[in-house]
Amino acid sequence: MINEQRLIQTFLDLVQIDSPSGDEGAIAQEVAARLRALGAETNVDSLFNVSAKISGHGVKKNTKPLFLNAHTDNVSPARGIKPVVAGGRISSDGTTVLGADDLAGVAAILEGVTSLIEDDKKHPPLEIAITSQEELGLVGAKAMDIGKFRAKEGVVFDSGGPVGTIVLSAPTHNLLEAVIKGKAAHSAHPLGGINALNIAARALTLARVGELDRESTANFGIIRGGAARNIVPDTVELVGEVRSRSDKKLQRHTRAIRAAFEKAVQGTGAKLDFRVTRAYNRYQFRKSDPLVRRVAGALKKIGRPAVYRAAMGGSDANIWNAKGIKTVVVSVGYEAIHTTDEFIPITELVKAAELVEILAAA
Ligand SMILES: [Zn+2]
User: Using CA atoms, how far apart are residues 334 and 161, in angstroms rounded to an integer?
Assistant: First the structure.
């Protein structure tokens, strides 16, 4: 049975180990040690991704393994987290994030599996990936060697809101980098200069951004350039992105933004370097998919009928699906993530652990 006190303690222990993205060494060792105590064979790679394999129990030898995933890294401010338990929820002291994104997922996996083993329940082989640097762009999952895993399907415990949501789809994400190179000149003698900032402004008014259609968005988030008030700026760099759950639309929107930049540069004498990099690829499941039905069945058993959602953000599931492990993402109860108001209701943390246990039971 899920032990609420133990689960809370595990969560509190984990969030108090500093684990901002890129500094997951200590938490990786802690999680690996806890998994080894459950009989897992573990490995920690150079990026501090933890992989763990737990043999099946009471099932046929060829029973398909189940893949379970959550991530250890936190967004800033994430050092010196002091969790506060009050009013049926856990929050930070207001000076840092809580780190429930995604240590709630990690704690739920640890408690769910602990309970399963403690109660001597039958279960398939379990293959667990606890990743690092998720918040930096799924960096840990991308780099992780999953060659030792045999699982073909699994679940990512890393979405917000009450337990019960299944994320059926997520977009493809293009990263855009545009560098406009003009020509510097003294502002008092601007003739002969090519003002890259003016061209960038024109490009931004020509390019459509924001919500482009029901499944696509675009944004420019950073503009850098210029040297001084009295110099015609010669170089401006813009950093942006396009996301879409449709690859066709993604291509179309990306091309249109590039065309807007080309048009803005045309005839000015400036040069444009426009780069598109793929951050991750989309995935989509139907409600009738066997994996989705399996997760929905488990949710029903814990008294939370499935709610389906389409995401506009990526998660490690984008990487696993691309690498050949079918995965959907489920909510684990955290709220107001990436802010110092982040919290998780204890009831949700418990439900998340119950979901792990039911899913992992044969
Ligand atoms: Zn997360």
Answer: 6
From 24, 73, 348, 357, active-site residue = 73
User: Facing residues of 149 across strands?
Assistant: none
State yes or no: is 73 an active-site residue: yes
How far from the centroid of its chain's Cα atoms is residue 150's Cα?
23
CATH number of 4-169+283-360: 3.40.630.10
Domain ranges of the chain: 4-169+283-360, 172-280
Question: Which spans in 119-166 are helix H?
Answer: 139-143
Distance between Cα 80 and ligand 1 center (Å) = 19
Q: Active-site residue among 101, 102, 134, 357? A: 134
Identify the three-state secondary structure at position 153: strand
Helix axes 346-360, 4-15, angle to 10 degrees: 110
- Decide whether 4-169+283-360 matches 172-280 in CATH topology: no
| Cα 221 to middle of ligand 1, angstroms | 21
Output the six-digit token pair for 12.
């509190």
pTM (two decimals): 0.91
Please confirm, yes or no, whether 241 is among the known catalytic residues: no
CA of 314 to the centre of ligand 1 (A): 10
**pLDDT by residue (tens digit) across 49-71?**
999 999 999 999 999 999 999 99
Q: 134 C-alpha to center of ligand 1: Å?
A: 7
- Residue 123 is classified by DSSP as B
In sequence order, the 6+-apart residues with CB closer than 8 A to the CB of 252 are: none
Q: Which residues are CB-neighbours of 354 under 8 A, at least 6 positions away?
A: 2, 112, 302
How close is the Cα of 65 to the center of ligand 1, in Å? 24
Render pLDDT for 229-277 as a digit per residue (tens, 0 to 9).
999 999 999 999 999 999 999 999 999 999 999 999 999 999 999 999 9
pLDDT in tens, 268-303: 999 999 999 999 999 999 999 999 999 999 999 999
From the CB of residue 29, how many other CB atoms can be counted at a distance below 10 Å?
15
In CATH, the number for domain 172-280 is 3.30.70.360
3-state secondary structure of 186: strand
Q: Is 60 exposed, middle or buried (0-12, 13-18, 19+ CB in 10 A)?
A: exposed
